[in-house]
Amino acid sequence: MGEGQKWKQGGRSSIAVTQITELKTKLDSTERILSTLEKERPPSQTASDRPQEPQNGKEKEKESLNEELHELKKENKLLKETNALVNRKKEHYECEIKRLNKVQIYEEDFKRERSDRERLNQEKEELQQINQISQSQLNKLKSKIKAFQMEKEKLEKQFQQMSFPTSNCGLGSPLRDLCRPTGPGAVQDLQKHPPDYQWYAPDQLPPDVQHKANGFSSEKKVNQ
């Protein structure tokens, strides 16, 4: 129910209350006048009690008072009927106002419920979007992990193909000499700090070892 309807119903109720108050005031005033006229009205006289001389002025005044009293009684009756009608209208307006207030409460509850439902739907959509983004990022991360694992396996296979057995220490005697410790203190030092050998293919030897290997090969050719 809008504010205009509320003011309209409140205005009707106020008008009804004002009318009732005015009618009650008028009714009370009429009843007081009737009571006064009844007291001032002379008692009925018999023909024998009436004076012989006519009193035209008093008779006319009496008739006028009787007519006024009769009109006031009619007006009083009409006012009572009008008052009863206004009271019924007042009760009707009060019931209507109560009903409209309940309708307004129901309407406000419905609007509040609809607003909450729309808010929850919006939050649900936002959570679904966040879930989709998280799922997409998770799938990308899984793909990267899988690619890293495949690259790791590939590198391990290449390393295994390039490595030599640890029992074979080199190519020819000069390389074997490189694997043996020299001097009496070198044995103890080797026991404390064993060398960390990395084995290479002939074309992938360290530069110093490859140089010695090339020198050994040249000397062998000269001796031949």
UniProtKB/TrEMBL annotation:
One of its GO terms (cellular component) is cytoplasm. Residues 62-142 form the NF-kappa-B essential modulator NEMO CC2-LZ domain. Keywords: Coiled coil. InterPro entries: CC2-LZ_dom. The keyword Transcription does not apply. Pfam families: CC2-LZ (PF16516). Residues 29-83, 170-224 are annotated as: Disordered. This is TNFAIP3-interacting protein 3. Residues 29-42, 50-80 have a biased composition (Basic and acidic residues). One of its GO terms (biological process) is regulation of canonical NF-kappaB signal transduction. The lineage of its organism: Eukaryota, Metazoa, Chordata, Craniata, Vertebrata. The gene is TNIP3. It comes from Hipposideros armiger.
